[in-house]
Model the fold of this input.
Amino acid sequence: MKKLVTFLVLSLLANTLVAQTKKESIGITTGFNVSNISKYSNNGTSTTFNGTRALFGYETAVSFRYRFSNRFSIKTELSYIEKGWKGQRFIGSVGFCGSPGPSQSMLDAYKNSYTYVFDNRFRYVTVPFILEYSIFKKNIFLQLGGFRSKIVKSDQTNAANPLLESYTSPEYWLSPVNVKSLDWGANLGIESRINLSKYTQMTFSTRFSQGFSTVIEGISYPTTNKEMAKGNQTLSFNIGLFYLN
Done:
């Protein structure tokens, strides 16, 4: 038993030493995120986290890392990320935001629909550039960097009342030209690494991303309300598998 324990400890140390000599690594990561918008305004009235709720999304990425030393490395990724926010809109009993709206009987049947929730989902292709520095222990890294991303798909759906779906299509609320396709921002995260063998490594990471760009801006029709949403905020949780070259 003692020999077995000694063998396992020595094997783990050997894998760690070999992994530390590897300068390049490539891997894949996947996970989920929670996102919201920093600032939203409607018809000139600005709100911060008022009238919006967090939205759950998913993400996956191909990552490349180059290690300069046991403590310092850089990483870049090609990521596909879904993020956005849940919004709220008021339904009046006479009309629906200035247009002929649902009947009173429909509103009475769905009392919670006076303020209902709709999902704004945006799928981004994102390229971050991240500096990594080991803290506390050599397998725990602090991450700091920035990102540039582009929207490849956007959806708005009513998550509360299917009967009102026809009133909440993206074409009804926001013209496609009002969706800003490019975003940029900053990242802050922490990552833990576990060496599985001489050539494989598992990672567990948490990252906060703050976007600085406007996501939507323009006139919400059929009304003349001016709408603006700016600054996507995302908290991500990912697991990854890397090959050490």
Q: What stands out?
A: The radius of gyration is 23 Å. Residues 7-20, 91-101, 159-177 have pLDDT under 50 and may be disordered. Residues 2-88+119-244 form a domain with the Porin fold (CATH 2.40.160.20).
